[in-house]
Amino acid sequence: MSPSWTTPSASDGTSSSWLVHGLLAGATIVAAAGAYAVISTSRSAKFRSRVIGIIPARFSSSRFQGKPLVPILGKPMIQRIWERAKLATTIDKLVVATDDDRIAEICLGFGADVIMTSESCRSGTERCTEALQKLREKFDIVVNIQVDEPLIEPEIIDGVVKALQAAPDAVFSTAVTSLKPEDASDPNRVKCVVDTHGYAIYFSRGLIPYNKSGNVNRNFPYFLHLGIQSYDAKFLKIYPELSPTLLQLEEDLEQLKVLENGYKMKVIKVDHDAHGVYTSEDVEKIEALMRERNLS
């Protein structure tokens, strides 16, 4: 079943949007409103057409040591990410970028392509940049697929690629979903605000927007940032040359360096029950969810 494209009704509250009915139950993607929200399939075939997906993975982590290799119902988490990403239809090549031999060995064992990168990479984006430089093939778009979301929908990966293809003024695209009220104060759940044309305004570990009462407004559509983003390959080559910015360092969010330097970032809104793995406790939660949904 291929994705079907429909125009939302007036009740959607947007002047122009797109909707993808995914292959998996409940996997729908709705783009933020704006001039570039409608994806032109004819232009997409020519503009930024070659796409590589890169899964940056490091063993050392202050929050969760060895996270890519943690078992999720018997499979390493990075294998689950790989298998989901392989289902995306827009990706021409998929690789794992790592600086750790243990991760490389496991990935090679389940058939993944691996590129070894240096330990000096300060972020997943920098690791993607180094991996891209080591490839002989040329690509127009690089998709950074983080290991935090082992249940990421392949339709979401396709969605951020098509959003960037349809927005020539953007160098970056990403996805958000609805933020659950119970996650409002969790600094591991990154929040995002978007303008009326579907471009990112700001990302924060704190709740944004923040109202005068200091309480979560249960009627407000807060956005949770998902760990999936795509970059224009030419921009990615200059990204490491950009100096770290004050907001980026304060929030510890690499997306802010893009915005602070004046570049545009396209955002799509997706209907996705996000279950990121940031701590060991999150592993138990996601395994319980998978058992409940009979996902092997």
UniProtKB/TrEMBL annotation:
One of its GO terms (cellular component) is cytosol. The keyword Cell cycle does not apply. Its main location: membrane. Pathway: Nucleotide-sugar biosynthesis; CMP-3-deoxy-D-manno-octulosonate biosynthesis; CMP-3-deoxy-D-manno-octulosonate from 3-deoxy-D-manno-octulosonate and CTP: step 1/1. It is found in: Membrane. Keywords: Membrane, Nucleotidyltransferase, Transferase, Transmembrane, Transmembrane helix. It is an enzyme of class 2 (transferase). This is 3-deoxy-manno-octulosonate cytidylyltransferase. The chain crosses the membrane at residues 20-39. It holds the Pfam family CTP_transf_3. It comes from Morella rubra. It comes from the Eukaryota.
